[in-house]
């Protein structure tokens, strides 16, 4: 690459209604590479399939990228709006004799395919109209425009991930660039767009590798310099098979719903197939500083949901308490028996430092915080029930009298009161804390008991203890 050349990468999704995790990773790599090089990262929506490309499907992509913090430069380009330009290039190739009109009828193409199949050859176009004069076609017959593929030699790509990849030109046929209805084919549109958008590096899944050889034909015929290519290995499931529904979440929205933080998902996706020494957790700034294509491995990556959960837990602990509180309140809203008003919010916020230490996902965080919004009488799980023996209920009643006079009612003073109470009754602190936790939370797990008591507030603590006094 010339030192003066500005790197421009692109993400070119087809709006299918979801943003697949493999595509999201391609977007991340394009973004990081552009930022690493001080270049630009642009977005092109490949919306030529008009039925699928609804506004909703496009929004899924915008929302997903924004959620992951992958900001693109400039306005997104819509491929469908560029059809005229695609046609223009096809006609130029035709005028220059680098492409030709093919008048084959659907029946003829079918016969061609069947003949190839019968001979055990791949179904390639046989060049029927390559050297024929269009005047041989019936007047007014519809035609497609096909590119003249080189027949001899080989095409070579110096792929920035895969290394040198070669394909014999004989493997490629004269593909259609403009259909008989005047619409461009996918291969053609991609090349014209990448060229016009001055893309220097095409970073995409290696399922596009064969397309690249086809696309190169158009670059050559137009005399355009091709971009550099980097084909990323695909993401497989934990068992090595192609990632599918049965493995678990696949789309960005699903990961979001399952309670993953975008920065954790990005960190995980980056590390999946790209390495920099042993570093596991890298901030976005570090990612930009360190990312390079030479660090991308060649073999398929296996999705490891447990590892993702681990990375997520690390990020949760670092995340801002207000942000987590907002997320938890959203997840709790509409949950039966859980109040999500301002009082609950304040309790969740107060206890967040302790809560976030114990959760691996935002869903778990919300589950663990839900008790803060419940009202008496609480329901108790089996372990909590076990703690609430008649003796312990009496003990809690006595404790309530001590807690009633703690002032100020904060974690520090609550802690001191609990210790004094335990000592006075010759109990280990845990023998006080566990029944207390059970009566307050309905479960036997929570953040530190002092912080939990303080977060609930005196009135609520006394009410929850009071509710089991005569039961
Ligand atoms: N639109 C293609 C896809 O979603 C990507 C094409 C490309 O990156 O060149 O798979």
Automatic annotation (TrEMBL):
Gene field: gltX
HAMAP family, A to Z: Glu_tRNA_synth_type1
Catalytic activity: tRNA(Glu) + L-glutamate + ATP = L-glutamyl-tRNA(Glu) + AMP + diphosphate
Taxonomic placement: Bacteria, Pseudomonadati, Pseudomonadota, Alphaproteobacteria, Acetobacterales
Segments forming domain Aminoacyl-tRNA synthetase class I anticodon-binding: 343-467
Superkingdom of source: Bacteria
Quaternary context: Monomer.
Keyword terms of this UniProt record: Aminoacyl-tRNA synthetase, ATP-binding, Cytoplasm, Ligase, Nucleotide-binding, Protein biosynthesis
Chain's role: Catalyzes the attachment of glutamate to tRNA(Glu) in a two-step reaction: glutamate is first activated by ATP to form Glu-AMP and then transferred to the acceptor end of tRNA(Glu).
One MF annotation (Gene Ontology) recorded for this entry: tRNA binding
Stated name of the protein: Glutamate--tRNA ligase
Span list, region Disordered: 116-137
Localization terms from the record: Cytoplasm
Major location category of this protein: cytoplasm
GO cellular component: cytosol
Motif ('KMSKS' region): 242-246
Organism: Acetobacter estunensis
Motif ('HIGH' region): 13-23
Entry EC no(s): 6.1.1.17
Record-annotated Glutamyl/glutaminyl-tRNA synthetase class Ib catalytic domain positions: 7-309
